[in-house]
Write a structure and sequence with these properties.
The protein is mostly beta strands. The chain has two helices and 18 strands. It has three domains: 7-71, Roll (SH3 type barrels), CATH 2.30.30.240; 95-124, no CATH class; 141-211, SH3 type barrels.
């Protein structure tokens, strides 16, 4: 079994990080890669091809590489910061509000509608998403939407039949310990931040509750 938050081990390190994402081949549903988060405060998300996954026994994902080799893998990056063209307006929304990341040092202005930085222009975020070609990515807290763009909930667990993805659990409310099991054949477009479930809200709510921890 494979799921978010599972511990990862390398050939020389028992606690090498945790799983925060998984990539699957479109069509076949076979695992094509994992996203491993290493570190706490300066965490780094690392993209690991499935060829290096040895086993997922007893809740631990074992890799056939050393910690040093894991560090040598590419970052899994949803976004990157880029310099805007000269004269380009700074972004109108920043995260968190009032903070703009730019050339060092950055400065909290307290006003997200008029952000600025010291030492250079504000930076803009650009989507990267280095997902393997022919694969789709699922991650914890990925938003699940209906075909009309209404939020159904967030992804909390992955479900498998053998080595293939058969569905996922979407939690409509973080306050309650249950979710809805969405079969893989009900999944539509899958993007990095969200995915589409091919059912309306009424049909989604009618699904039986699935306990989640």
């Amino acid at each position: 079994m494979l799921d978010f938050g599972q511990q990862v081990s390398t050939t020389d390190e028992g606690d090498a990080g945790i799983i925060v994402g998984a990539l699957f081949e479109e069509g076949s549903g076979r695992l094509s890669g994992l996203v491993v988060r290493r570190g706490a405060f300066a965490a780094r998300d690392i993209l690991v091809p499935s060829d290096y996954v040895a086993s997922t026994n007893e809740g631990i994902v074992a890799l056939t590489m050393s910690a040093e080799e894991l560090e040598g893998c590419d970052d899994f990056r949803l976004r990157r910061l880029i310099s805007p063209e000269l004269g380009m307006e700074p972004p109108q929304t920043v995260d968190p509000p009032g903070v703009v990341r730019g050339s060092a040092p950055t400065l909290m202005t307290g006003n997200p509608e008029n952000p600025w930085t010291v030492g250079g222009p504000p930076m803009l975020e650009e989507v990267v998403g280095n997902v393997f070609e022919g694969s789709v990515a699922f991650s914890v807290d990925q938003q699940a939407m209906d075909p009309d763009g209404n939020l159904l909930g967030t992804v909390s667990h992955l479900v498998f039949e053998g080595d293939r993805l058969s569905g996922l659990v979407v939690r409509p409310d973080e306050l309650f310990g249950s979710g809805k099991l969405i079969p893989a054949n009900k999944l539509g477009d899958v993007a990095l931040d969200e995915l589409v479930v091919n059912m309306d809200q009424e049909s989604f709510r009618a699904l039986p509750d699935t306990p989640v921890s």
